[in-house]
Amino acid sequence: MEYEIKHQGKFKFIEEGEGEPLVLLHGLFGALSNFRDLLDYFKHYYKVVIPILPLYDLTLLETTVGGLAKFVNRFVEARGYEQIHLLGNSLGGHMALIYALKHPEAIKTVILTGSSGLFENGMGETYPKRGDYEYIRKKTELTFYNPEMATKELVDEVFEIVNNRLKAIKVIALAKSAIRHNLGEELREIKAPTMLIWGKNDTITPPMVAEEFGRLIPNTELAYINKCGHAPMMEVPDEFNTVLHAFLKKHTAG
């Protein structure tokens, strides 16, 4: 089903359900649709919140992973959320980690899936030439274990982004910022319970990345999902939701 996009000042977001806030942050080529199955399930247990991230609307100076984390903070403060469960996929995980480091008092749990922040195989040196639809299709397929997940609709969305000159510049700026903003040892400062849900077949942030996050962040659990790539909440939503719900139940009041 389609959900209402709500507005408060300059913020646009989806908010469904009641209870403790579960805030979802998508990645660089992500969209609200990435979390549809997760939202459908968890709105019955939590207040599920998806802010629409200004990936292409910030100034070039602010178009950094740190700039997006600051946006998340402004959004959380404007909405008055407290003790949030913060989930991020890919670049969204990177934002979640920076937010958790800067605002530990606001965080109840952190959930990472295919997160950047340590290492990722992005577009890299082979950033697509504009107009190369077949290249974009193949790159989009690499996000998943099952290439059929890269539907025409999804490929078209990515293709539109890289063929919009301004958006392409912002994407490159964010990708370079993520690589530069390597978190490393400072992750040891995150005290909130942290869940790592990782596709065993993720080629963008491979399993070794999850293991390194697990080594660096003190209070972590790691769950692998077999036959799954970089976006488990899209590719295997039932299994993802089961793992996530078991974790959240342990850290939810009542």
UniProtKB/TrEMBL annotation:
UniProt keyword annotation of Metal-binding present: no
One Pfam family per UniProt: Abhydrolase_1
Domain AB hydrolase-1: start-end pairs: 21-135
Domain of life (superkingdom): Bacteria
Signal peptide (residue range): none
Keywords of the record: Hydrolase
GO molecular function: hydrolase activity
Protein name, UniProt field: Alpha/beta hydrolase
